[in-house]
Amino acid sequence: MLEMTERTTRTEITFTHPFHLQSLADPLEAGTYRLVVDEELIEGLSFTAYRRVGTHLEIPAISVGMAKRQFLQVSPAEIDEALARDGQAVQAGPRFIP
After folding, report:
1. Which residues of 85-94 are buried (b: 16+ CB within 10 A; e: fewer)?
2. Across residues 51-69, what is the average pLDDT?
3. 49 near 24, Cβ under 8 Å?
4. What pLDDT, on a 0 to 100 scale, did the predictor assign at position 79?
5. Nearest to 22, CA basis, from 72, 86, 88, 87
C-alpha cells in the first residue's frame, strides 16, 4: 500500500480587528483568512506522524473580491500570537494592541 508522504491542510481563521505580522510593513484588515499548512510524513516510526514544513497565510481576506492572491510564509507562533492579541482586544474593548 502506497502511503502519502505529504499533506496540506487548509483552515480559515478570523481576526475581528486589524492585525500586524512581522513580515509586512502595513497591518492587515480584520476578516477571515485562509491558513495553509504543509506537512511531510516522518518515516521510520511505528505510527503515522507528520512534521510541519510550511505555514502560509493567503492574503487578502477571503471576503475581498480580488483575482490575485498571495501566500505569505508565516510562523505558526506568530499567527497564534496575532490571534491571541485579537482575542484580548475583543475582551478589553476597542483599543490597539501592538
Report:
1. bbeebeeeee
2. 88
3. no
4. 94
5. 72
